[in-house]
Design goal:
The chain has ten helices and 14 strands. The protein has 309 residues and is α+β, with helices and mostly antiparallel strands. The protein starts with 6 loop residues before the first strand and ends with a helix. InterPro entries: CO_DH_flav_C, CO_DH_flav_C_dom_sf, Diverse_Substr_Oxidored, FAD-bd_PCMH, FAD-bd_PCMH-like_sf, FAD-bd_PCMH_sub1, FAD-bd_PCMH_sub2, Mopterin_DH_FAD-bd.
Length: 309
């Protein structure tokens, strides 16, 4: 199939893009990487009157560290995050572990992190990480610039707080403490499918007890969610020795947190090859394993720090 007829504007400034978006209301679409948009247009599931191409807006193409955050511009491609050096400390590691799960190299060379926030797919790795880390989405519209916390930004599948005349200019991700461990795992039917379940986790341990834990879930509800009940179950717990291998004993605190996440935090929707019961089982297992990965990462970081002293 071919796209329905549409007009096209190649904006060179944010102001030009916002002006174009404001002129057509709900039927305008923004083109950055286009890896989701173009497919949907070809299938005519999305039929915009106007496509606003932002690829010529130079100010949207960079990343910077500002006030303890990594600020990611709207044109930064997925491939920029394949090296852990993209951001200092654990944040860079988390982003590099997540990005390899996104589609395949040609897609990653064109798609963008900010585009994922704009598309707001429940299975998006970046959207789950945004909710996990309490990222901030920055948007510019006719009334100026505003910021929305990621936890408030997502409203449902392909629905968000972005207004039709607004352009997402950047996403801000907070840097993580050096003593924080990170983990990211996902389960999918084939290498190129969307994740049936994806989990991001950060873990901080102080004097042998868990002093901070964050768990984010992708494709476990109609939007990315924090597993807050599971997080509470970990608060102050003695971490003890870590099990060897990926399989956790049923009575381990990470396995227990996984079961809580599956039953209390998630609201999975059945899909082909994955009914609700199956997805809850996957969530329980994957949360436990991701926490184990984060704990191992945290211990490795402490060992490196001790070795430097």
């Amino acid at each position: 199939m071919k796209p329905a007829p549409f007009d096209y504007v190649a904006a060179r400034t944010v102001a030009e893009a916002v002006e174009a978006l404001g002129g057509t209301g709900h039927k305008a679409q923004v083109l950055a990487g286009g890896q989701s948009l173009i497919l949907e247009m070809r299938l005519q599931r999305v039929r915009p009157d106007l496509v606003v191409d932002i690829n010529r807006i130079r100010e949207l193409g960079g990343m910077s560290i500002e006030d303890g955050d990594l600020r990611v511009g709207a044109l930064v491609r997925h491939t920029a995050f394949e090296s852990a050096e993209v951001a200092p400390g654990p944040l860079g590691t988390l982003l590099s572990r997540a990005v390899v799960n996104i589609a395949h190299p040609p897609i990653r060379s064109r798609g963008t992190m900010v585009g994922s926030f704009g598309w707001a797919h429940p299975a998006s790795e970046w959207c789950a990480i945004g909710v996990t880390l309490e990222a901030v989405v920055e948007m510019t519209g006719p009334d100026g610039t505003r910021s929305v916390a990621a936890g408030d930004y997502f409203l449902g599948p392909h629905r968000s707080e972005r207004r039709p005349m607004e352009l997402i200019t950047s996403v801000r991700l907070p840097l993580l403490r050096e003593d924080t461990g990170v983990g990211f795992l996902e389960h999918r039917r084939t290498g190129f499918c969307f994740a049936q379940v994806a989990v991001a986790a950060t873990l901080t341990v102080t004097d042998g007890a868990i002093s901070g834990a964050r768990i984010g879930l992708a494709n476990c509800a109609d939007r990315p969610v924090r597993a807050r009940a599971a997080e509470r179950s970990l608060a102050g717990a003695d971490i003890g020795p870590l099990p060897e291998g990926a399989r956790l004993p049923d009575d381990h605190l990470f396995a227990h947190a996984g079961r809580i996440a599956a039953q209390e935090d998630a609201a999975p929707v059945a899909e082909p090859y994955a009914d609700v019961e199956y997805k809850r089982q996957v969530i329980a297992v994957l949360v436990g394993r991701t926490l184990l990965e984060a704990a191992a990462d945290q211990r490795a970081r402490l060992a490196v720090r001790e070795g430097r002293r």
